[in-house]
Request: fold
Amino acid sequence: RAKIPGCERLTRFDLDTASFDQASTGTRVRLFRTLLPSVTELTGFTWNQAFEACFLEVRAPYLSNLQVWLDVDDEPVFSWKVLEAAPALVGIEVLSENQSLLGGAALQSIAAALRHGALGNLQELVMSRCIVSDGDVRGVLNALEDSGCAEWMTSMKFDECDVDAEGAHALATVLCREAYPALKKMILSGNDNITDAGVVALADALLQTTQTLLTDIDLSDVGMGDEGIAALALLVQQDRMRRLECLQFCGNDDIS
Reply:
């Protein structure tokens, strides 16, 4: 149906892909268009251009949390105008089961939205199993800082995204400038090309900060060895991480 009775009171909708993807395109689009004007949280669907048309047509004024799956590499990623159509967004989560090659394009869209004045309420950015380049990471970090949104960011996650030492250096640079004063969670697990070089850069940057609110740091499976763990140990010993509650570094087999 074009309208669903009571949907104006619906705030969270999780689109189970197993059943949702079996519906006809027309049915999915009608449901999506009906939900967008009222929901605050939308999760569990694989992005496609039909959904983008719905965003641009009816907008999503109350949407605060958006979770998108990118599992079709030949389907264009969402444009920055989609994010502009959801001005209340606080959290963006971009996921993949197969290390989608569209991760970089997704970050570029987020950066473009920030440059166009959208995403002014953004606090959480999650990328998981989506391949991104160092340039993509640097671009979104710079866009967050230039737009002023970095000041409100509380959580950043790049999990199994093929981030390497240069990407970690880019993050270290903004941390050193204390551009993210509210940041509490920094998750970089599963990026085994970060290595000691990236970990040392991050630790050195945090040593230079006057204060940090970081409570959770995940450097599991990042290719770290003794040099990296020594840098983290020094960081803790210098008492610069007073709020730290969880530091994970499991899966780094080069630590002796």
